[in-house]
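W.,

You were right to be curious about this one. When I first looked at the sequence I had no strong expectations either way, so I just let the prediction run and decided to look at it fresh. Below is the sequence, 297 residues in total, followed by the output.
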Amino acid sequence: MADADARAACVVVTYDALPWIEQCLESVAEVDTVVVDNGSGDGTVDVVRERFPAVRVIESENRGLSAGWNTGIRATASEHVLLLNADAWLLDGALSALVAAADRHPRAAAIGPRLENTDGTLQRSVRGYPTAWRLATEYLYLRKLAPRSRALNAFYGAGFDHAREREVEWLMGACLLVRRAVFDEVGPFDERYFLFSEEVDWMRRAADRGWSVVFTPDARCVHVGGAAHGGRHFRENVGGHLRYLSLHGRPGEAERARRLLRASLLVRGRLYRGERGRLYREAAAWLGSGDAESLLA
């Protein structure tokens, strides 16, 4: 991994990142690593400084994941930057495999590994660009009607072979190797996204400039999934969809998506009880409080 270590730095954004941050940082122990802490109150910063003295820690106000990534990337100078969630960790040889894939695909803006759950099963990370129709297939559960249909499952990369390296539209941002030259050309992550959709926005902007995104099964990474937010920021997820469509969708598509999402979440809010139902009802209420343009203002 030595050559990959020299060519890549790692950025980890933390917010109350215990108990996973130690395993995360141990997996990149030989890599120049920057932790950007967004105001943790659980002792994350103390643990990082005590256990990993070589890691640079930048304490910041919580302006969201995009802002944290941008801060960390700007604090490094390597050819590639590994963006790694605080609840994720690389498996043996993963960084070398990601850098090797970047060399095989010189027009790749970002390379993503095979994500795995903690039990070793596949965590599907390949996605299709959001559209009003693709969001409908997810939020109205249409994809469950025909799980193998590409038309009803494109948002989740239907039929994607996770055993083969290939170009994709975009990948979940739990673990991404980003090429610095593309970051410099395309610009930073859009800080209007607080959490969710910041990675697809950036990859779409890169694609619009002729760059690609590549998935490689040669690299493996474990991702706990939702450990940092526990589903509490569901409204941010919905708002991220609207912002992406307002910037990259067809005219009026964000507003059509707002209406669709509100209708689907009103139904979900009646079907589900407890915390999950409450989150759906709160998001539906927010979606009903204005049109897409005013909600994103």
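Here's what jumped out at me. The chain has two domains: 2-124+160-223, 234-290. And, maybe more interesting for your project: The chain has 13 helices and twelve strands.

Coffee later to discuss?

I.
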